[in-house]
Every structure is written in structure tokens, then in C-alpha cells.
Design a protein that fits this description.
The structure is a single chain. It contains six helices and eleven strands. It is α/β, with parallel strands linked by helices. The protein has a single domain (10-218), classed as Formyl transferase, N-terminal domain (Rossmann fold), CATH 3.40.50.170. The protein has an eight-stranded mixed β-sheet with strand order 3-2-1-4-5-6-7-11, with helices on one face. The chain has a three-stranded antiparallel β-sheet with strand order 8-9-10. The longest helix has 24 residues, at 171-194. The protein is globular and about 45 Å long. The structure holds ligand NHR and glycinamide ribonucleotide. Glycinamide ribonucleotide is lined by residues 16, 18-22, 95-96, 98, 116-118, 143, 179, 182.
Length: 225
């Protein structure tokens, strides 16, 4: 049974720390009718994040939750939960959110918390993935969408897209090609969730009623080489 009526948009909150290009992809797909979500609010841990400007431009509530205003991570995360839950979201989307979230936070949103990570997980968890991929001499790279659980960048994988590493690649060039894929992959997966096709069952991802044995690999486009 779909958990959401097909005709109603799923209220969602997006957390973003920086540029907000993934947020923009979500807003654009929502606006053009191809993604049945309503972004109820964008919340950032940085007051100057471009993501907040993008939210305002789209007529979406832009809010901040600033780490400097809380004595520790626990109280920060509690405040963040309170801000988010004012919007009663069915989905919380991490879109370049750069703060590690406590177990308490992650459990509170279990099964409705998604992240996009710039690597082919389980390879290259953590930060500076593009640099590390180049240093590691990898020939393939990409991005992954996963349900967030207590294990950092270790939650059950939903879908991935590959990018071929070029011999003359730079960190910036590689990042740009990976991000181009992120902007296709994330709205697609969020759409599955919003249409009730995607669930988390303990440690397993269910898509269209079946347990995924491996992440869905989104076929590359012609320019994705
Ligand atoms: N929280 C949990 N519990 N589990 C995950 O899988 C999470 C998460 C919070 C964020 C995104 C993630 C990524 O895709 C994410 C996944 C930040 C860091 C980090 O080290 C690591 C992974 C991710 C996001 N942050 C530093 C910190 O001390 C700060 C770094 C900075 O500000 O530049 O929080 O990679
Ligand atoms: C994205 O590439 C995302 O994969 C990455 O940050 C970028 C945010 O870009 N996320 C992480 O590295 C999480 N640690 P955006 O703000 O333009 O969407």
C-alpha cells in the first residue's frame, strides 16, 4: 500500500549547508510537476548559505539553526528536530548538509531521512571524496543516495550513478560531473519515496515491494563519460 495518496504532494524539509544546487534540482522538479513533494522549509547551519537564497527565491521558508548558539551537539540536534517538526514533514532530505547528526536525530527520522553522498559507497565515506578518488587512482567515481542511519555514510544504499574518471581530471572538473549526476539521481529517488514506492525495512531497502539486493544503478547519459 502506498503510504501517501498519489495526488497529494509529500511535505518535505531540506537541510543544506552550502550552494544548494541539489536543493535547486528538487525545487525545479517540484515546480515543473515531475516531483510530488512540497518543500515546506529549507534549514541551514550556515546563515550565509546560498541554499537559503534559493529557498527564498522559490517562496520557501528559509531558516537557520546555528551551531554557535548551542552548547553541544545534543542540544543542537534537539533544536533542529523541533524546527523541522514544526513542518510535520513526511521526508527530511540532506542536500549537502555538512554536520554529523546524532543517533537521537537519526532515529527520530528513521525511514524518512535521505542523504546524497559524492562517491560510490561503500567506497570513500567521509569528506573530500573527489580529491581522494583522484589520489587513489580510481577509474570510476559517482554518487549514492542512501537512507541515513547511525552509521555515518553507511546507511542502506538505494541508488547510484557512475562517472568515469579522466586521466587529466581535476578535483573541480570531477566534482562538476558528479554533481550533474546528483541533480538527476536525487530527484528521481525522492520521487520514488514520495510516490510510496520506497521504504526502509530494518536494514533493507524496499522498492516496489521487493527487497533491493544491490543499489539501483542509474544508466549513464551520453555526456557522463
Ligand atoms: N549523520 C549521520 N548520523 N549519518 C550519516 O550518514 C550522515 C549524517 C550527517 C550528514 C552527510 C555526510 C556525507 O554525505 C551526512 C550523513 C558531514 C560529515 C562531517 O565530517 C561527514 C559526512 C557527511 C556530512 N562533518 C564535520 C562534523 O564534525 C564537519 C565538516 C565541515 O563542517 O566541513 O560534523 O558525506
Ligand atoms: C554535493 O555534491 C553533495 O553530494 C555533497 O556536497 C555537495 C553539496 O552541493 N555532500 C557532502 O559532501 C556531504 N558530506 P550543493 O549544496 O550544491 O547541493
Amino acid at each position: 500500500m502506498p503510504t501517501h495518496a498519489a495526488h497529494s504532494d509529500l511535505p518535505s524539509v531540506v537541510l543544506a549547508s552550502g550552494e544548494g544546487t541539489n536543493l535547486q534540482a528538487i525545487l525545479d522538479n517540484s515546480a515543473n510537476g515531475s516531483l510530488p513533494v512540497t518543500v515546506a522549509a529549507v534549514i541551514s547551519d550556515h546563515s550565509q548559505a546560498r541554499a537559503l537564497t534559493r529557498a527564498r527565491a522559490a517562496g520557501v521558508a528559509a531558516e537557520t539553526c546555528l551551531p554557535a548558539e548551542y552548547p553541544d551537539r545534543k542540544q543542537y540536534d534537539t533544536a533542529l528536530i523541533r524546527l523541522i517538526d514544526r513542518h510535520s514533514p513526511g521526508l527530511v532530505v540532506l542536500a549537502g548538509f555538512m554536520r554529523i547528526l546524532s543517533d537521537h536525530f537519526v532515529r527520530h527520522y528513521r525511514g524518512r531521512l535521505l542523504n546524497i553522498h559524492p562517491s560510490l559507497l561503500p567506497k570513500y565515506r567521509g569528506l573530500h571524496t573527489h580529491r581522494r578518488v583522484l589520489a587513489g587512482g580510481e577509474r570510476e567515481h559517482g554518487c549514492s543516495v542512501h537512507f541515513v542511519t547511525e552509521t555515518l555514510d553507511g546507511g542502506p544504499l538505494i541508488a547510484q550513478t557512475k562517472v568515469i574518471v579522466r586521466s587529466d581530471d581535476t578535483e573541480a572538473a570531477l566534482r562538476a560531473r558528479v554533481q550533474e549526476q546528483e541533480h538527476r539521481l536525487y530527484p528521481l529517488v525522492i520521487g520514488w519515496f514520495a510516490r510510496g514506492r520506497l521504504q526502509l525495512d530494518n536494514e533493507h531497502v524496499i522498492l516496489d515491494g521487493k527487497r533491493l539486493q544491490a543499489p539501483v544503478m542509474l544508466p549513464a547519459q551520453e555526456h557522463n563519460t
